């Protein structure tokens, strides 16, 4: 039996209540975690998995959608605690995860410093220092666009750049489930581009949403927003329409 578990993790960050939704895939032989939260989230992940009757001792792999801090913060700790796991990421993400290249999010934050007011700059500098504390992790296996992983009924890798250049989404054909990472987020019954002001390439992000429409999606899971309650196809089309209309109105 192939099962998809949503690990809804509620926490406070910067004084605000937030929820993230890592996903756990489980069958008779494999347990695969998709993204793993901020630093020090290992106990929260373990507790969330236990609610579904699964111990992270059974983890066989962690698939990383991209190297933002809320997706990889506990990656090194997971590997240290459960050394049997295979860390999997898109090929271009490897140097950022390993720490041999500066995080793109750090570069982005640093580029804003000269334009910030004296009141804003300390917050940005503190954010950069926090990003610099993210512990590097070695990637055991790289994946490419449309690669098929054989576990848990099959997993198709979809390269969905925009939010970050090496961002991936995952399609599970057995259950027609799309796991979007941050390609889109679910909010107030709608789908949206995740943090468009911080998206590395908005035009690429919109093309990635268009790419998701090539798949037969019966359920769509966002890292921010969890399981989307509506019909995914028209909601994705609305995202494309909204941002394409905005682009045209600016010309």
UniProtKB/TrEMBL annotation:
Q: Which organism is it from?
A: Brevibacillus reuszeri
Does the keyword ATP-binding feature in the UniProt annotation?
Answer: no
Instruction: Identify a single GO molecular function assigned to this protein.
Output: hydrolase activity
What this protein is reported to do is described as: Counteracts the endogenous Pycsar antiviral defense system. Phosphodiesterase that enables metal-dependent hydrolysis of host cyclic nucleotide Pycsar defense signals such as cCMP and cUMP.
Catalytic activity reads: 3',5'-cyclic CMP + H2O = CMP + H(+); 3',5'-cyclic UMP + H2O = UMP + H(+)
Keyword Mitochondrion appears in the UniProt entry: no
Superkingdom, natural source: Bacteria
**Keywords from the named record:** Hydrolase
- Stretches assigned to the Metallo-beta-lactamase domain: 19-224
The name this protein carries in UniProt is MBL fold hydrolase
Q: Which InterPro entries match?
A: Metallo-B-lactamas, NDM-1-like, RibonucZ/Hydroxyglut_hydro
């Amino acid at each position: 039996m192939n099962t998809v578990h949503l690990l809804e993790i509620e926490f406070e960050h910067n004084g605000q209540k937030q929820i993230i939704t890592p996903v756990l895939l489980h069958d008779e032989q494999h347990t695969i975690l998709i993204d793993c939260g901020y630093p020090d989230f290992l106990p929260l992940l373990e507790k969330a998995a236990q609610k579904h009757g699964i111990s992270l001792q059974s983890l066989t792999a962690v698939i990383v959608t991209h190297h933002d801090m809320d997706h990889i913060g506990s990656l090194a700790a997971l590997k240290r605690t459960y050394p049997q796991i295979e860390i999997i990421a898109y090929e271009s993400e490897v140097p950022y995860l390993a720490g041999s290249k500066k995080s793109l999010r750090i570069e982005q934050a640093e580029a804003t410093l000269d334009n910030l007011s004296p009141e804003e700059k300390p917050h940005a500098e503190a954010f950069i220092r926090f990003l610099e504390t993210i512990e590097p992790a070695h990637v055991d296996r790289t994946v490419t666009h449309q690669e098929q992983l054989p576990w848990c009924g099959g997993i198709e890798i979809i390269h969905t750049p925009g939010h970050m250049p090496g961002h991936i989404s995952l399609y599970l054909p057995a259950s027609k489930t799309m796991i979007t990472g941050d390609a889109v987020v679910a909010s107030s019954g709608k789908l949206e581009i995740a943090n468009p002001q911080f998206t590395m390439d908005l035009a690429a992000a919109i093309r990635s949403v268009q790419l998701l429409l090539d798949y037969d999606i019966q359920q769509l899971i966002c890292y921010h927003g969890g399981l989307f309650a509506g019909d995914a196809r028209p909601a994705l089309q609305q995202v494309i329409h909204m941002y394409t209309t905005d682009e045209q109105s600016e010309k």
